[in-house]
Protein 1
Amino acid sequence: MNLLDGKFIAQEMYTKLQSDAAELKNKGIQPKLVIILVGDHPASLSYIKSKEKASQTVGVECEIMKFGADEMDTAKLIEVIRGLNEDDSVHGILVQLPLPKHIYEPDIIKAVAPQKDVDGFTAYNLGKMFLSTRFEDLAPCTPLGIIKMLEHAKIDVEGKEAVIVGRSNIVGKPVAIMLLNRGATVTACHSKTVDLSAHTKRADILVVAVGKAGLITADMVKEGAVVVDVGINRTEDGKLVGDCDFVTVSKKASFITPVPGGCGPMTVACLMNNVIKAVHKQNPSLS
Ligand code: NAP
């Protein structure tokens, strides 16, 4: 078994992104990301901290706009986003999800200008991915991180059976499209799938993004499969684990991502990748 070491690959990405950011600064452009947080969801606070730290590492200015849940509603938040869309000093806008229930997420995501949508969640950026790899401009960060880990390990996905468990708009669906764009034969499973293990057992590449610890056991995995575990779950004793039973699944897998240290660090590094990309998209004369 080989580890798909997201932490290590993310560090390599940072080295490259640091020099990209320095080059932009030499040309008079300070890359800037604005993160909007509404409320005080505990996981969001910790995710924002890691995004802030990554920004510092790369040399991206990171502004956090914090609002109390009761001082914000859908219309007010759209106004804030419109202001940032028009602010030329801001290259990336990230609205930390989940939002409080009284704010309508689809309208908020829609308000972000596609060229500043560094999370890759707008219908425009997601829709473009359907065309081909050439149009995966600002791809969602977790799926992009998965593709980068596979590329780093020189795992060719063409012609392979890829099975994705989970069909969210931010992980499962876009990673399915990205693997399809690269020539894999893709099966997308979800909570209504009948006989999940009949599908997972066929997978040369198995991506699991559900959020249920222990969902995937070794008997559900083909010998030699590449296993990407996106899930993040906290056990009763406070330990972070994925959706796969790592100890047993790793004995059958040819490659596997650890949790923590796999998809998580790659997601943050890909966010930085998208911020730098967004700067170029907004300044076409640079490229
Ligand atoms: P989500 O929106 O809750 O989607 C979960 C998906 O799992 C749904 O499509 C659901 O099916 C499916 N599902 C639920 N129970 C299932 C079962 N028993 N068998 C098969 N499929 C089942 O979650 P998400 O946002 O995609 O995140 C998934 C996990 O990844 C979470 O643990 C999250 O914390 C983690 N995550 C990690 C990162 C990272 O950076 N490492 C980034 C994003 C998410 P239905 O559609 O039918 O309901």
Protein 2
Amino acid sequence: MSLLRFNVINEAIKRKAVVVGAPEGRPSDYFGYNVFNKEKMLKYLPKKSYDALRNTMENGTPLDITTADVIADGMKKWATELGVTHYTHWFQPLTGGTAEKHDSFIEPDGNGGVLEEFSGKLLIQQEPDASSFPSGGIRNTFEARGYSAWDPTSPAFVIDDTLCIPTIFISYTGETLDYKAPLLKALEAANKAATEVCHYFDPKVSKVYSYLGWEQEYFLVDEALWAARPDLVLSGRTLMGHESAKNQQLEDHYFGSIPTRVAAFMKDLEYEALKLGIPAKTRHNEVAPNQFELAPVYEETNLANDHNILLMSLMKKVARRHYFRVLLHEKPFKGINGSGKHNNWSLGTDTGVNLLSPGKTPQEKLQFITFLVNVTRAVWKHNGLLKASISSATNAHRLGANEAPPAIISIFLGTQVSAALDEIEKSDGNSVIKMDGKQSMKFSISHIPELLIDNTDRNRTSPFAFTGNRFEFRAVGSSSNCAGAMIALNTAVAEQLKLFKKQVDEKVAAGTSAEIAIIEILKQYITESKAIRFDGNGYSDEWKEEAIKRGLDYETSVPLIFDRFLEADTVKMYADTGVLSEKELHARAEVEWETYTKKIQIEARILGDMALNHIIPVASRYQELLLNKIDKVKRLFPDDKVDVLAKSDLDTVEEIAEHINKIRELTAKLIDTRKVANKISVEREKAIAYHDTVAVLLDEIRYHIDKLEFSVDNEMWPLPKYRELLFIR
Ligand code: ADP
Ligand code: MG
């Protein structure tokens, strides 16, 4: 076996579980230990400043600089007691991931010494030199300034020796350059619109929260094996690799026990996550070998999203302590399941009502149906945009590639809810519903709760499914920032609820009772948005045809899907809700196209290098070995024996030559098409060229490499194979 491959396999096999010291106390003791949460605010802030901060967190009331100074001082005091020496504004640039620049607390004291200082000014706003973050043209290089500004709604936390302040990131001219700022605006728009609609049912509601419960899927690979795969190291996925004889066919991984090494990693990760206030709750094996999932308890969306981003970086760090590498790529291995990040989403009031949970009283039931139907219509109207919001070069390997979910957004409601909507649609319009419950409803809404309690008809092929008290947006990719999806969804719902309110109010103004007006408008919505409802098999070809007939977005080319960011309906939606300006949308689309191009470009380079430096040399060496044998056979045996003794070797030599020639030819083509594409200056056109002419070659080249892996002597093959990468012992 190639020495490198032998060594790394050997290293991986010998690895034992790394047992990190057991956490001290119970989870409830150390939960939030590293977070400046309410408990610490109470302890480290004077009552007046504490109240002011709570008021800012809950009602968005601006903080004055004097109070900010006091808060900064309290934070510093708490943090320095934990041994913290630095602080950073933690933000989420459009690259995905997070950015941070650490500054020390120290300031000269004027007498040759230093003091630990942290002022309100530094807490509230900073000006990171962030000229290298993507801005889609908003920040020209000569105006490279960007500001980070404190988001008090997400608590500060400590990692290692650094106090991290969650911030938004905006340009000098005020445009948002990150994920958090528009997310906060989208959540505010949803809150406003939903609260107003709630007032039809309960005037006491003063705030509606958006909730997010993500489920993070990931792969683990032993670090030694990972390091011997340049494709994994540089692109996060295997660009080549013959399928392992055993994959996920036996479905033994999902229900199997968690391997000891992995269990030790999970425990360590959960301990760290809990200390950071991430309410990690569920862990399990996933369908594919080496694939796992972590899910927390759901939280308010902005906080939940910060926690997801934080968890992703935590995973990478903790994995290394256990000699693993974590793969967050949506499709690290061909032929087995990829990873997603289901976004469980709901809306709930400050009075404690989940608006997507079928209530008990007629009033609650109508409220539930109102929100359900409005969400359905919002998703129908913006299905193309929702797809754009979860699309990327990496997620494209999941979507539509005969794997959950398909590249067409549809909604699964389940039979009971569907039946209820059908009934409302068919009702004669004179249905009377009385809020005081004196008169019962004429349609079957009253039956919903009983039926839903054991609503188990789940549809795993649906990208957007109602699961009893929430929607589950399953199309989100494992590596993405959930904010992409959450901005689009919450804004679409906000726009929709505003429209609903307007239409109901118009009817009421014309003399209709609110209840009748609500039902009439809902009936109309149910009819209009029927096209988005689909309970069948999302993978079938029939569904694709049907979806086209229904007018749903069926585009599969990622660069073209990004066009949805700039369509009139999208621009209007974001403008009317105040979430994103047209300029910001253009910038975001630019960044999406640019990122797409770069990802494919990097993969193309790696594949070209590996084909020429790893694969062809090895295949040639094996050819040579065979040719030596053939040569000897020819010298030692009479002609009529040569055929028997060397026929198969001659065939193999030829077969290998064919693959090598193909790889050379296609690699040359890959370089040429890239050169052509690189000359294109318009980002959209460049991304399209990369999609249409470069990305397709990756699969073609891979085909021949995988064939070679199958015919070349196993002993010579330099790269760890799928069967070695995928089964942690
Ligand atoms: P499954 O794998 O069956 O979908 P999990 O238990 O793995 O379920 O994950 C479900 C996720 O949905 C969890 O994060 C959970 O907290 C979240 N969730 C539950 N109820 C709600 C809700 N009302 N709103 C948002 N998320 C929710
Ligand atoms: Mg789920």
